[in-house]
Design brief:
Blueprint lengths: L4 H20 L8 H15 L5 E5 L5 H8 L3 E6 L2 H10 L4 E4 L12 E7 L10 H11 E12 L7 E4 L6 E4 L1 H10 L2 E9 L9 E8 L1
Parallel strand pairs: 1-2, 1-4, 2-3, 4-5
Antiparallel strand pairs: 5-9, 6-7, 8-9
Helix pairs in contact: 1-4
Length: 212
C-alpha cells in the first residue's frame, strides 16, 4: 500500500531527529505535574475496570509508556518511526514497542482496555482525524478509556495549523476535539486546558474519554 505523503514526512522527520528529540525531551514525564495528573487519572480509570492491554499510540521514545508501566498498566507502544522505537526499546527493554501506523491498527476489535495518544494526533490533517478516532473506537472495548494530549488553540479558531519544528501539525480547541470524539461514540469525561509552561510555545490541552 502506498504511504500517504504527510505520513511519510512525519515518519522521516522523526527518524532524522530521534536522537536529538530523545535527548531534549528525555526528562521523566512525571516531572510535569499536569501530565502526571492526567496520566494518573487515566490509569485509575483503567484499573477500575476489567484489566487489559493499553496502547500508547505514537509513543515516540516511550516516555508515557514507561510511566504507565510504573503505575501497573499492561502497556505497549507503537510509532511510525523505527528510530524512535529503537530508542524506546533501549530505555525500557522489558516493554513491547512496535513500528506501525495508528491509522490502521493490527489489533482485533474491542481488544484494548485503554489508548493513550500523547501528542500523536497532531500531525494528522484534520479531515482524516475522524477515521483515526474511528479506528481507536474499533479496537477499544466498550467502557475502555482514551487519553489525548495536544497543543491547544482557542475556541474561536477550532483547529489551526501549528508551526511545529519537526513536521506539519495542527492545534485543536478542546471543545472541537471533544465534539469530534462524541460524534464517534466516545463520552468525554474530563478536559484540561492550561497556559504554556516556560519551555512551551503554546497552550496545551488534554481530553479523557470513555468508549460508550
Amino acid at each position: 500500500m502506498t504511504e500517504i505523503d504527510d505520513v511519510r514526512v512525519t515518519r522521516e522527520s522523526y527518524d532524522e531527529i530521534a536522537e536529538l528529540y530523545t535527548t531534549t525531551f528525555g526528562q521523566p514525564i512525571e516531572e510535569n505535574p499536569f501530565d502526571r495528573a492526567m496520566l494518573d487519572v487515566f490509569a485509575a480509570g483503567v484499573h477500575g475496570t476489567e484489566s487489559g492491554l493499553v496502547a500508547d499510540l505514537g509513543c515516540g521514545p516511550g516516555r508515557a509508556a514507561r510511566y504507565l508501566d510504573s503505575l501497573g498498566l499492561n502497556v505497549f507502544g507503537l510509532d511510525l518511526s523505527a528510530e524512535m522505537i529503537s530508542r524506546a526499546r533501549a530505555t525500557a527493554p522489558h516493554l513491547r514497542f512496535e513500528v506501525g501506523s495508528m491509522e490502521k491498527l493490527d489489533l482485533a476489535d474491542a481488544s484494548l482496555a485503554g489508548i493513550v495518544a500523547w501528542y500523536s494526533i497532531i500531525h494528522t490533517p484534520p479531515h482524516r482525524i475522524p477515521a483515526v478516532l474511528g479506528e481507536f473506537a474499533r479496537v477499544l472495548r466498550p467502557g475502555g478509556h482514551a487519553l489525548f494530549a495536544f497543543q491547544a488553540s482557542d475556541e474561536s479558531r477550532g483547529i489551526q495549523e501549528h508551526d511545529h519544528k519537526v513536521a506539519p501539525s495542527y492545534r485543536w480547541a478542546p471543545d472541537t476535539l471533544a465534539a469530534t470524539l462524541e460524534e464517534l461514540g466516545f463520552i468525554v469525561t474530563a478536559r484540561m486546558s492550561r497556559t504554556a509552561l516556560p519551555d512551551e510555545r503554546t497552550p496545551q490541552g488534554c481530553l479523557l474519554a470513555v468508549r460508550s
